[in-house]
Amino acid sequence: MSAAERANRSRRNSRRRRAVSKPERTRMRTVRETSAGGLVIDGLDGPRMNLCAALIGRTDRRGRLLWSLPKGHIEKGETAEQTAMREVEEETGIRGIVLASLGSIDYWFVTDGRRVHKTVHHYLMKCLGGELSDEDVEVTEVAWVPLTELKSRLAYADERKLAEIADDLISQMPTATDLTNATDLNLQKRPDVG
Q1: Tens of pLDDT along 122-158?
Q2: What is the 3-state secondary structure (H, E, C) of 50-112?
């Protein structure tokens, strides 16, 4: 084979390779986001059957109202616990204080041409006061939901698991009635009391 034939053959093969090769994919940039929120409970000092949690409802793209736990982005200089208390108040109107960690949820989604890996830290919180309010622009509706209805009301399976963890933690907490009964029993056992 002559040099000219080899050169032509080489040119033909390179054209074929270029035509067959796949177009390069543009890689999406991955972004990490961290948020915090909570399950704020009212009635922890009373009977267990009266316990309620403040939930938020957001309307999805299909027009469905999806109930979830209030949560939001951690601001610079904030701890996750501080963010949880702030976000609960901003999204529900209810002030709360953190009692315990419920755990974290992480998930991925794509938005604006980027992949987002989001981690959300959740806390069990005790209601300190306030009034339900859906003034936050991201919230369609807010409601006090009985603890017994959380499984059926929460839209996301991960949040339903957190509600179960909260239920277990709450069942281990002494109620005001338990504390009163324990005090009465201790007083009856002491020999110097009546």
Answers
A1: 999 999 999 999 888 989 999 999 999 999 999 999 9
A2: HCEEEEEEEECCCCCEEEECCEEECCCCCCHHHHHHHHHHHHHCEEEEEEEEEEEEEEEEEEC
